[in-house]
C-alpha cells in the first residue's frame, strides 16, 4: 500500500487545485469589482467575458481537437464555482456555453462540431440552449415549435422562452417538433445562428436575480436552415436534450455551490469585525452554530457535486455508469437548496446591513433562487431521482 499522503481517492488532483487558485485570483481581480454594478444596471458582464476569454476559461469543456482547452467535467465545475463565488451572472458564461454546445458534442456530425465548436473555443461566439417555451416548461416534450422539411432545408417556426444569454450568443441549439404524432420521439435538435433570417429576440426579462445575464424570448419566424444543421438523426433531439441535462445539471450545482461559498466567506469575515455587547459577534455561540451548519452543508454539497462531475466525465468517455441521471439531479437539487439556505442565513448574520445593497449577500440570496428553478425545478429533480433510484 502507498503511504497515506499519496491516497488520492477522494481529493481533486494537484492540477485541479492549481486551476482553482488561478480562477479565484482572476475572478477576484477582474470579475468581482464589477459584480455589484452588473446587478444594479442589469447589464451583461462584458468585463467578465473579456477576462474569461483572454484566459481561455469561457468554454473550457470544448475538446482539444476543436481548439478547446479540453477540460474535464470536474475542472469545468471548478471554473463555474469560482466565478459564481464572486458573480453568479458571470458564471453563466462558461455554464451556458457548455449547455448550448453539449448537444453538438454528444450527437452532432463531425462537420457540425468543426463548424461550431471552433468559434466557441476561440471566444468568437457564445452558445445558448433553446428548450423551454411559454407553454412547455417542466413538460418540455409538450413544445410547439415546429421544423418542417423543405428539400435540403428545414423551416423553423415557434417561440422559445427563458433563453439565457439570448441576443448575446451567436449560436443556439433549438429543439423543435419534426413529427407531431410521436411526442418526445418526434422532436429534433438544430443549430440556429443569430444571423439567420427570421431570428429575433424579445425584451430582456426583469428578474429577481442573475440580472447581468440576459434572459429573453427567441422568435423563429420562417427560419430556413440547411438540413445538415440537424444535430443527430431526426427524432433524437429530445433524447439528446435529456442526456445533455444529465451532464449540465452538475454545472448548476457548481454555480449554487459558488454562490453559497461566497456568501459564507463574506458573512464569516463580517461577524469577526462586527462588535456588539463589547465583543465580536463571532464570539456568540448562536452565531458559531449558524456558521458551522452553513459550512457543513456547503461541504456536503461540494462532495456530491464533485462526485457527480467525476461520474459525468467517465460517462462522457464511454463508461456505462447508469446512475448519472440520479447523481446529476441529486447534486443540482441539494446544492441549490443549500445555496438558498446559506445565502438567507448570510443575510441574517449581517442583520440590517445584510438587507441593503451596500453589501453583496442580498444579491447572492437573489441569485441563489434561480438555481432551484432552472435546468429542471427541484420538484422535477425529485421526480427524476425517484425514477432513477440507484
Supply database-style keywords:
single chain; alpha+beta; 4-stranded mixed beta sheet; 4-stranded antiparallel beta sheet; AcylCoA_DH/ox_N_sf; flavoprotein; Probable acyl-CoA dehydrogenase fadE25; acyl-CoA dehydrogenase activity; oxidoreductase
Descriptive overview:
This protein is α+β, with helices and mostly antiparallel strands. The protein has a four-stranded mixed beta sheet. The protein is globular, with a radius of gyration of 21 Å.
- The helix/strand order is HHHHHEEEEEEEEHEEHHHH
Uncertain regions: pLDDT < 50 for 5+ in a row?
Answer: none
Strand content: 5-15%
Shape: globular
Number of helices: 10
Name the average pLDDT. Answer: 97
Q: State the distance separating the first and last CA atoms.
A: 31 Å
CA gyration radius, whole angstroms: 21 Å
Helix % is 40-55%
- Largest sheet, order of strands side by side? 1-4-5-8
Q: Biggest sheet, open or closed, and with what strands and sense?
A: 4 strands, mixed
Q: Structural class of the secondary structure composition?
A: alpha+beta
- How many strands? 10
Concise structural overview:
The protein has 390 residues and is an alpha+beta fold. Helices cover 51% and strands 14% of the residues.
Amino acid at each position: 500500500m502507498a503511504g497515506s499522503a499519496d491516497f488520492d481517492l477522494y481529493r481533486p488532483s494537484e492540477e485541479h487545485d492549481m486551476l482553482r487558485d488561478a480562477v479565484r485570483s482572476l475572478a477576484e481581480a477582474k470579475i468581482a469589482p464589477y459584480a455589484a454594478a452588473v446587478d444594479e444596471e442589469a447589464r451583461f458582464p462584458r468585463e467578465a467575458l473579456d477576462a474569461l476569454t483572454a484566459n481561455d476559461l469561457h468554454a473550457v469543456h470544448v475538446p482539444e481537437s476543436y481548439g478547446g482547452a479540453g477540460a474535464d467535467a470536474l475542472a469545468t465545475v471548478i471554473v463555474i464555482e469560482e466565478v459564481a463565488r464572486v458573480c453568479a451572472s458571470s458564471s453563466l458564461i462558461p455554464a451556458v456555453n457548455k449547455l448550448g454546445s453539449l448537444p453538438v458534442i454528444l450527437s452532432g456530425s463531425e462537420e457540425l462540431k468543426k463548424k461550431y465548436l471552433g468559434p466557441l473555443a476561440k471566444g468568437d461566439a457564445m452558445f445558448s440552449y433553446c428548450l423551454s417555451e411559454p407553454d412547455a416548461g417542466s413538460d418540455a416534450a409538450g413544445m410547439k415549435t415546429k421544423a418542417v422539411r423543405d428539400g435540403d432545408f428545414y423551416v423553423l417556426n415557434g417561440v422559445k422562452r427563458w433563453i439565457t444569454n439570448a441576443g448575446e450568443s451567436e449560436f443556439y441549439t433549438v429543439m423543435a417538433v419534426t413529427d407531431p404524432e410521436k411526442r418526445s420521439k418526434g422532436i429534433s435538435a438544430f443549430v440556429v445562428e443569430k444571423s439567420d433570417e427570421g431570428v429575433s429576440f424579445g425584451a430582456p426579462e426583469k428578474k429577481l436575480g442573475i440580472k447581468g445575464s440576459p434572459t429573453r424570448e427567441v422568435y423563429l419566424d420562417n427560419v430556413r436552415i440547411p438540413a445538415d444543421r440537424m444535430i443527430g438523426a431526426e427524432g433524437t433531439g429530445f433524447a439528446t436534450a435529456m442526456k445533455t441535462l444529465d451532464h449540465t445539471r452538475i454545472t448548476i450545482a457548481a454555480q449554487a455551490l459558488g454562490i453559497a461559498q461566497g456568501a459564507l466567506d463574506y458573512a464569516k469575515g463580517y461577524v469577526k469585525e462586527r462588535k456588539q455587547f463589547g465583543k465580536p459577534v463571532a464570539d456568540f455561540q448562536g452565531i458559531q452554530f449558524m456558521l458551522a451548519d452553513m459550512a457543513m452543508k456547503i461541504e456536503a454539497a461540494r462532495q456530491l457535486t464533485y462526485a457527480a462531475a467525476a461520474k459525468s466525465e467517465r460517462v462522457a468517455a464511454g463508461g456505462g455508469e447508469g446512475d448519472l441521471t440520479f447523481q446529476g439531479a441529486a447534486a443540482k437539487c441539494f446544492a441549490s437548496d443549500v445555496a438558498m439556505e446559506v445565502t438567507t442565513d448570510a443575510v441574517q448574520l449581517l442583520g440590517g446591513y445584510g438587507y441593503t445593497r451596500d453589501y453583496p449577500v442580498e444579491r447572492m440570496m437573489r441569485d441563489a433562487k434561480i438555481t432551484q428553478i432552472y435546468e429542471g425545478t427541484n420538484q422535477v429533480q425529485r421526480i427524476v431521482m425517484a425514477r432513477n433510484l440507484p
